[in-house]
Amino acid sequence: MPTPRVIYQPRPGSPIDVDRVFYGRLGQETETRNQIEQFVVPIRSGRAWPVLAGQICRIVVVEGAQVADFNAWNLNNPRERFWAARTKQLHRAHVTTFDRLWSCLPYLRPMLTITADTVDYPLDEDGAGCHDLLGTRCDPYVHKMLNGEEFDYCCHSNLVRAVAPYHLDESDVHDVLNIFQVTGLTTDDRYFVKPSPARQGDYFEFFAEIDLLCAISTCPQGDLSVQAWGQDADDPIDTCHPLGVEIYQPHPGLMEGWQSPPTSDYRGIHGLDRP
Ligand SMILES: [Zn+2]
């Protein structure tokens, strides 16, 4: 049997390999930053908010373990949005500090860089990791198919309500990063989850590389410790908790040399004949 081969291999200096000194300082030197905003997202709800290029945003476990389904768009052009599948290939299926979230084609640039992750959950004995890109958001269509029930507070719907004030709709909601969610593949290749290991005070933090519109849903399945679909389905509402969001402006001295990344310089001809 051939040995596994990582397919997307960066060359030295590639934007996939970030400057760990630079981003490490941004994540660690917290006493020099200014907090700009702070709010709490209640259980089974969604909220969207801008994070400007050069700002830092933190998703905080304010009470107990809770999964956040995260979406991101270019604040000035919502067609440019987070591309979960390619991010998984460029970095890994469970992202952490120094990984980046990439935008879709034809833009393809880092939208944000993760600067801190206090959960610290290395791949476990089942091959499971935290902050999941293997799966996507829960949605009311699959929920109805599996449980026969109308439910309006799945992550997909929470994100739809969250972005409505920004004149975005259901078609703008896209595949998510599941923050604080532990997932893997079973030995027979099926998607599985484990209860979130996040504890009060844990946070997941990122540096905005471009002006962003971010959104999270506080998943109605809470910490994912209760089976929500199938024969043994139960209502996980007792495992649901709010999440905090904090936005910071880092000290300008920490950002010296940083520039907001441009979109891809592929000329976009695709081999088409053009008159
Ligand atoms: Zn969900």
Detailed description of the structure:
The chain has 275 residues and is an alpha+beta fold. It has one domain (37-253). Helices cover 12% and strands 29% of the residues. It is built from four helices and 13 strands. It has helices at residues 20-28, 84-90, 140-147, 155-163, and strands at residues 34-41, 46-51, 56-61, 68-74, 77-81, 100-102, 110-117, 129-132, 177-185, 191-194, 203-208, 212-218, 243-249. The strands form two sheets. Strands 2, 4, 5, 8, 9, 10 and 12 form a seven-stranded antiparallel β-sheet that branches. Strands 1-13-3-11-7-6 form a six-stranded antiparallel β-sheet. The chain is globular. The relative contact order is 0.27. The mean pLDDT is 97. The structure holds zinc ion. Zinc ion binds at residues 69, 137-138, 154-155, 219-221. Residues 69, 137-138, 154-155, 219-221 line the site of zinc ion (ZN). Residues 40-213 form the DUF1989 domain. Pfam families: DUF1989 (PF09347).
Q: Which labels suit this protein?
A:
single chain, 275 residues, alpha+beta, seven-stranded antiparallel β-sheet, 4 helices, binds zinc ion, DUF1989
Topology:
Blueprint: H1 20-28, E1 34-41, E2 46-51, E3 56-61, E4 68-74, E5 77-81, H2 84-90, E6 100-102, E7 110-117, E8 129-132, H3 140-147, H4 155-163, E9 177-185, E10 191-194, E11 203-208, E12 212-218, E13 243-249
Antiparallel strand pairs: 1-13, 2-12, 3-11, 3-13, 4-5, 4-9, 4-12, 6-7, 7-11, 8-9, 9-10
Residues 69, 137-138, 154-155, 219-221 line the site of zinc ion (ZN).
Domain DUF1989: 40-213
InterPro entries: DUF1989
